[in-house]
Amino acid sequence: MADHEDAQLFAQLRSVWREADPVPAGLIDRMVAAVAAAGLSQEYALLTLVEGELAAVRGEADALTLQFSDGTTSILLHVTGTAAGRRRVDGWVDTAAATLVLTQGERSRSTTPEVTGRFVFDEVPPGLTRVRLETRVGDKTRTLATPQFEL
Q1: Which among 119, 20, 147 is positioned nearest to 111, based on CA atoms?
Q2: Which whole-number Å values give the CA distances from 7 to 13, 23, 104, 115, in the listed order?
Q3: What is the distance between the alpha carbons of residues 125 and 88, in angstroms, rounded to a whole number?
Q4: 19 DSSP 8-state letter
Q5: Is 71 helix (H, G, I), strand (E, B) or coil?
Q6: Can you give the pLDDT of all 151 residues of the chain as single tens digits?
Q7: Residue 139 CB: number of other CB atoms within 10 A?
Q8: Environment class of residue 44 by beta-carbon count within 10 Å: exposed (0-12), middle (13-18) or buried (19+)?
């Protein structure tokens, strides 16, 4: 078959389906909403409170432990307050050849974990925070970015 014959055949097939089984009203809007909500669900699933109560995420708790994972790589964060009213973030990753970037608004700082996977961010101001883990295996780079969380 020639390309124009294929196009005609597909056009006829589309018109048959439009008549026999039309797209339900509002389906496109519902699908857009479902796709947008799927992204939110994935971000929420990455955030797992390891210890403490859920209120401790934004409460006045002395320490907070959070774990983020994408199923193959994990980041564990232990957050404590300092005397200056800032935060100390002790963390561990379960992968090698990594760089970690802590971002708060326009400010960011990076570190490389020790061989054991341990890393520290000292004197972090309170506020919305995100941690990004970049790993390099061969010529491939993988990134695990946490959802924003409050320190």
Answers
A1: 119
A2: 10, 21, 53, 60
A3: 9
A4: H
A5: coil
A6: 677 888 898 889 888 888 888 888 887 777 777 776 666 555 555 554 444 444 444 445 567 889 888 888 889 999 998 888 899 999 999 887 679 999 999 999 999 998 888 999 999 999 999 999 998 877 888 888 899 988 8
A7: 5
A8: exposed
